[in-house]
Fold this protein.
Amino acid sequence: MATIHDVAKLAGVSAVTVSRVLNNSNRVSSTTQARVQRAIEELGYVPSIAARSLRSRQTFTVALIVPDVNNTFWTTIARGVEDAAQGKGYSVFLCNTDENPAKQQSYLDVVISQQVDGVIIAPYDTDADNLEKLRRRNIPVVVVDRDIAGWEVDTVRGDSVAGARALVRHLIALGHRRIAVVTGPANTSTAIDRVVGYHLALSDAGIAADPALIRFGEFRAGAGEREADTLLRMSHPPTAIFAANNTIAMGIIDAVGRHGLRIPHDIALVSFDDLPHASHLFPFLTVASQPVYDLGVNAAQLLLSRLAADEDLPARQVVLPTRLVVRYSCGARLSDPGGNSLSLPVAFGAPESVSIAPRVPPEVVEASRASLGAMGVLVASRVAAVETPQADVDRLLATLRHEPADRTPYLEMWINSPALYSHMLGRPAQHDPLSGRPATPEDHVELAGRLGMDAVVCDLSWPGGNQNGGAGELGRPAAPLLDQLNYLERYLRAVRETDVGVIVHITGVMGAGNEDAFDLAQLMQADRPLAERRMDDLLKHQLRLLRALCDRFGDELAAVLISDVLSGPQGPRLALDLLETVYGERARRLIAPAMEHGKPVGIHTPGQVGAVMPLLHEVGFDFVHPVDPAHNDLAEMRRAWAGKMALAGGFPNDLLMAGPVEAIQAHARSLCVEMGAGGGFVAGSACGIGPQTPAPHVVALATAIQTCS
């Protein structure tokens, strides 16, 4: 079996250097890292976890403590946690508490004795005292799908209030007025939140809540069956029931059947949480669907980022959105002309309607909770989640909306100049080993602040470890979702307490750059079906990425930027009719998550873009970058697209490179005056800031933009 010394010998480095590479140290150059990795792969070297543990005092294990492994909700979360943790070399201990306090305490003793590095837990109640064993030992903890009162701790959960309100609002819109809710234990934050959302929907419609229709129990099928049986025996039973999770819904279905009733003909049913896979075979339940797998990934990301941090991070609260999925069980399709109104059989390919549940303001939630408390419905109170403050980028956002601002915004998409970082920061920037870029997100944000940029671009088009700079097949980023989330979160942490916003950038469906776009255009001519299959593969991957990013960070992002090289110096890469056919609908699908979250969406496409602007506008893009004056008539584009699409970039690369400083400043002021009046234009270089761009020239450009109002 190969040893660390064998690897060092083959790579031509010391064993210490190999150790640093294995431990992701930033003290090793990218070239040396690549050489060591090749040696590891060639020899099949597997580092000893025990040895790593002795050196680092880590066990590289984490515990996941959940209430019910029989529920697919929790097994899906577990899969998300495991996939993310395994990708970073961590093993996961899975513990099942059955919502039992004694069993939870027993498992806490076990994971403490096993010296796990951290714990992800869905506690049985909201009381932080029941997790005191972990807090007293300073064990890093992430709470998933629940909230804790009295402890500032990392938390990730779905938006239960918004999802519940959306479900009950939908029932009310269908004509229901007597609606019951069957939820989990009254000392569990998730159960309470879903009652709060239920109450808000009733209040919005002017319907008084009936405490007899609010049933607390357990998140289990048996509890759903018992509570539904009680409700259906009432002299004035409900016409609709909201089940607070999918297992409760299964119990309610059994009870309804025993009473000789049909869903949805005799009673409507909606549920929180979808049934993975079952919805494809039995597309019946109307649900509030959470991104369950992403809850697990985000929980792991919060825990592992805390374990890796050199600083004491503040507690983070992550709330992922829920989506209303309308199917049959609510009765919405009973009146469909020619449609199938029966519970079974349901026609193949049954239609469903999906929409995001709008977030409820915290003060509205607290007012509802107080009202329920006054009614004697709630037996426990809890601390409201603390929202992460959003970066202030009003100038940029107003401009993208074609509104006037105090001055033209300034944005540079790429800054890959070590000299500029040293010039502005007074020290060399730290190389970022994760992305391979010459600066960390923290240095990038500091530089942006010093230059007066209104936003930074978090570029997730990087290949994730490919030291040769290639983008891999179809330009697909090789980095796992966990790394992408980590990288973006670092940007968002860095901009807190600043006036700098964050724009996230990913590759689109045409590939990562000019070479990808050229190859795809060639393939489109030779074998169009194959070219479209490759586009669809990339679309599937990037749509999944963008949805995860927007669901997690949508409230904090300023905008989203997509790279698709549609044009070259002479015009479109493909004939316009073909481009519209193969690109238009795919691009609409890709940017849908950003639009769903209300984020401005831009496209980075170099070359001559005038001919493709109508297509970009039709697709739904809000702005285009970089409108290089070497290939475009900026004044004409401004006239043609004022009020419809914003333009970003526009400063000529040859002038920025050659200078002199006085000419740079004069042209920048002229550009802002001619293009920036009334909004719709964001100034910046047309080709980014590369290693050869003189630092004083960049400073001159930034200064001129900021002083031109």
Observations:
- The chain has 26 helices and 22 strands.
- The first strand starts at residue 61 and ends at 66.
